Amino acid sequence: MSHHPINIDELVDSLTLAEQVSLLAGRNIWETEPIERVGIPSMRVSDGPVGARGTDFNGPASVNTPCGTSLAATFDPALVLEVGHLLGKETRAKGARVLLAPTVNLHRTPIGGRNFECMSEDPYLTAETAVAYVNGLQAEGVAACIKHYVGNDTEFERNTIDSRIDEKTLREMYLVPFEAAVEDAHVQSVMTSYNRVNGTWAADEKRLLADVLRGEWGFDGLVMSDWFGLNSMKEGIEAGCDLEMPGPTRHRGQALVDAVERGEVSRSDVRTAARSVLALLNKVGAFADGGPGPETTRDNPEDRALVRRAGAAGMVLLKNEGNVLPIVSAPARPNVLIVGPNAAKGENRGGGSAHVNATHLVHPLPALTERFTAMGVNVLHTAGCAINKRLPELDLALCGEVRLDLFTEPADALSPTATPHTSKAITTSRFMWFGDPATGSTQPPEFGARLSTTFTPDIDGTWQFGVSSVGDATILIDGETVLSNIDVVVGGGFFGLGKAEKIVALHLQAGRAYDIVVTLLRPRTDMSVSGLHVGVQRPVVGDPIEEAAALAGQADLAIVIVGTNDDWESEGWDRDTIDLPGRQNELIERIALATEHVVVVVNAGSPVAMPWLDQVSAVVMAWFPGQELGDSLADLLFGDVEPSGRLPVTFPKRLEDTPAFEHHPGRNGVADYAERRLIGYRWYDTVGREPLFPFGFGLGYANIEVTNALVRSLYSIDVTLTNDSDRDGFQVVQVYAHRLHREGVRADEPDQKLVGFAKVAVAAGATVTAPVRLDARGYREWNETTNDWNTIPGRVQLRVGLSSRDIRATLEVTP
């Protein structure tokens, strides 16, 4: 905090109208507007939910923590609190004071593009996870910015879609995590969503912002728009959207000053918003900082150990036939096969604003190989198949020096004699920029880029070259244009702002050096995101699945690491299907035919279909577990840690079996939440549909049973657990509430809802009685007639279980 107490009211009243208005929009992409005349500094904010990235997608490395779904899967708020503390320290290391996180939209459908960033289909589990996250973060002097308020549950037409959600559903489902974050964790900022809510832009929704958020819940922090998510001048200010991001302003500035002076917008509304901005600066110590600090990288053993522990704690053991796991001794034959597209290069985090350059990245193959080698076991490896949505990046092993030249005038990129503004050797052919990478300006960019190298194929054959970009790109080989995407329409990658990939196939000779030049012309627009992806695909020789099956025949154990990556799960687009991309299902089935013991590891942020489930020995859901993913996985597979994760989402057998299937992704600009409150397990349990795996499910290596349960109060029960195995372990006790008096309830009344959980450690052979705290809001319902909360009438059955489908004891209470 500042050395001298700041009187916010005096400060805001000392400002001119133009100065007050200047505070209500960013000065650039990541920072607020300073007012040097009175000593008001700029404050930096940073993405995002799995690590504080800082101002540059390609900037200084940051610790990459597990994704939101992985954190919720731990069912362990105390562990999430630790992760929150770490993220607070990371945010400060990037010179920022606000972290744009956590993301608490619900998993309405398993194919939501940002599901991995979010936590769960269940509002209470999401709320408990979010409260711990916010508490940890804010204890480090950093404001959490919880998002996206509200109804941003799809990436389909996300900037314009109208989320039509009835009031009871909104109150009992989608608003719950936000309410808990405000009332229980005193979250200091809230980000509005892009979409409309029942016809009104979220940033203009006065009822949700002024009446509910500030009025009912008592929120006293800052409300900011999502980036380019403000669509008004007058309505947003009047509703209570304090800060338009990013800058420079599109809707405020001089136009707002003029509107106030004409009497069209209240001077009081402007003052209130400016005061919110200054109050947050004061809360997070920005006045004492005097402005954003340098962006540095923290990297220490304690951080790595926490991410490794958290990553493993979220992994869920879904099947373990014949106790093939943990791997405690060498197999009979000395070979193990580690196969799959996510083996050599696993996915530590999804795409979009969750992107972060990890300080340290451990992939599965090297981590597992190290363990097996120590056992005297030989590891065989092949990818088996590819899952690239776009062609893979340039293989640097086949390239000479790769240079990136940047020009302030786009057309200069086409001139071999033009002098670049900057030029440097690089180690990637995939770029995403905010602002102008040529000048470093954070204003909307206008620049040219030229990537050049020599490329020497290692085999003869048909090579594919591809480019996707924000702007017009060309590929020249030996001076001849072989591809131009000038005719490709916008709507591909880069948050949906870029052009989809265009590909050309060329026959190349092995050993011959080809000169490759890729140019990008980026014209000025009001969007700050730019990007370029240059991909090259090798000729396919033989059938990689047959090669993998032949290797499997030499092994007693195969570990197949499959999943998605940040091209499939990302901000900007939803998935089309829950099927594993590419030929991964076929790969698993062929491996299962070729060897006896198959362990499948799913490295994805959301549910996938498992048509091969009956053919394999074991399945582990690893999520996107952060930068230590290889070591986290090894710890679990080799039994160094007990599997203690549980599913925070229901796994369907088919996408058609999901509650929002008939209504998603929306039609004619409207997303109709017609399933109402029946999302996730609430729907499966109410209609009797059989899931692949139920909500809350997960196995351990130890066997821990519920042996007794009793009510202590309306808000606490005691559960007795007995571990009858020879391993220490954990059990996640879950309590579901079922109302017994159901006369007059709406058709979407769920059969049951989660109202409590506890992760309990039980030593081998021991019996433990543990308290389970129940949801303080668990016995209420929204009354559509009085437009207020009621207590549920009559008796309530508390179901104590190990998943939503595995109930071990029932109790009754009267609220």
Structural class label? alpha/beta
The number of distinct β-strands equals: 34
Percent in strands: 15-25%
Distance between the termini: 44 Å
Overall pLDDT:
95
* Largest sheet properties: 6 strands, mixed
Q: Sum up the overall morphology in one term.
A: globular
In order across it, which strands form the biggest sheet? Answer: 9-24-23-22-10-11
Oligomer: single chain
Annotation field: number of helices: 18
Please mark out the parts with pLDDT under 50 across 5 or more consecutive residues, or reply none: none
As a percent range, the share of helical residues equals 10-25%
Rg calc: 27 Å
Please characterize this protein's 3D structure.
By secondary structure, this protein is of the alpha/beta class. It is built from 18 helices and 34 strands. Strands 9-24-23-22-10-11 form a six-stranded mixed β-sheet, sandwiched between helices. The protein has a six-stranded antiparallel β-sheet with strand order 13-12-15-20-17-18, with no helix packed on it. Strands 1-2-3-5-8 form a five-stranded parallel β-sheet. Helix 4 (77-93) runs antiparallel to helix 13 (301-314) and helix 13 (301-314) crosses helix 17 (629-637). The radius of gyration is 27 Å and the shape is globular.
